[in-house]
Amino acid sequence: MQISEWLINFNAFKKNTDELVWHNTLESFALSLISVFIPIFLLEINFSLNQVFLYYFIYFISFAFFSFFVHKFLIIGFQKLLLFRPISLIIFFSWLFSLNFFPGTLNFLALYGGLVSAFYWVVFHCFYSVKTDDGNSINRVRDLFFIPKVATLFSPIIGAVVISHFSFSVLFIIVSIILFLSLFPIKGIKNFELDMDFDLKYLYSKTFLKFFFGFAVEGAYYAVIFILFPLFVYLNIGKMLDIGFLSFFVSFAGIISPILVSKICKANTSVFIKIFSILEGLLFLFVLFIDSIVSVFLISFVISIFANFWLVPFASRFYSQIKQRDAKDALELVTLREIILNVSRAAFFGLILLFGDFGIVFIINSLSRLLFLFF
């Protein structure tokens, strides 16, 4: 390939990834205004705590299930599949708001939400894994983590203020407008097809067994830190604005740590992953003893710092592993990733439905970090 051709292809790739990052940034801003408050909204419109847990259990099982079928629609093209995302989310939040009038549709909303998420994240990570060059994967993953987190730093606080001074309905309208705006970066992305195999041969591969353990841990982390822990704080010692500030501290740590990781984690990523995942798991046990909102902010900040010190290199290692193989394998690997992540998330809501105790679930979450000893 001539240098001029390589430059044209590289610039096209960079343009696509940059616009994908900007779309993801707008969407992340919109979702972070409201996502952490969805369980609270459901409680305020008279759903029980168990109904809320069941909603998330169904949502994540649906996400895992529909991930199996994404490959059948790749013929539509990358850009066109992404274009469905903002409209689908606007429908989702309109439906969520209508639960006030049609409460019997809650579980159907969970099924729909899982479907929408599967068709976005499988495609998103396929593109990112195939198009991220191996030598720069840690920086590309840093951008994937860093830029959206900068945009969403204050959004949970903004969301809490809007809910407190106006209403959830006003916040739903704001979120829908921003989601509509996120359509525009997608229009600049090339609509290429992702030509990838799908036969689940890696399901039986010892090579990727360690990644499957890691995905289970990652799923546990996201289920707990972004849904169960804020809900635990709200029910015990927090208020609406406190939950906004809790999310702020988690996001702020998420901005600092990926920058540090990309600077110092150039080699021995396995060591980073093992050390910081276990430290983060041990630290999470202290949430069982918090008795003030200040201690909540402090511990959530440090937990998020430690977590990003294993999340970023782990994601980088996954993308690098894909690049060492045929690009056609990416769909299978990403699909397996999403299935394991979301089965793990669903399992934690199943556990809390079974035991009815946040403490037991938090302890199991901490113990799950031991799986990284196999990484």
Description:
With 375 residues, the chain is an all-alpha fold. It has a single domain (3-374), classed as Growth Hormone, Chain: A (Up-down Bundle), CATH 1.20.1250.20. It is 76% helix and 0% strand. The protein is built from 15 helices and no strands. Helix 7 (155-165) packs antiparallel against helix 11 and helix 12 runs antiparallel to helix 13 (293-323).
Which characteristics define this entry?
single chain, 375 residues, mainly alpha, Growth Hormone, Chain: A, 15 helices, globular
Number of strands: 0
Q: Indicate the low-confidence ranges by residue numbers.
A: 1-15
Terminal residue distance: 38 Å
Described by the principal axes of the CA atoms, the overall outline is globular
How many distinct folded domains?
1
Count of separate DSSP helical elements: 15
Evaluate the radius of gyration: 20 Å
Mean pLDDT: 81
So, CATH architecture? Up-down Bundle
CATH superfamily: MFS general substrate transporter like domains
Q: H/E element string?
A: HHHHHHHHHHHHHHH
Q: What structural category arises from helix and sheet content?
A: mainly alpha
State the major sheet.
Answer: none
CATH fold topology: Growth Hormone, Chain: A
User: How much β-strand is present in the residues?
Assistant: under 5%
The CATH class assignment is Mainly Alpha
Helix content: over 70%
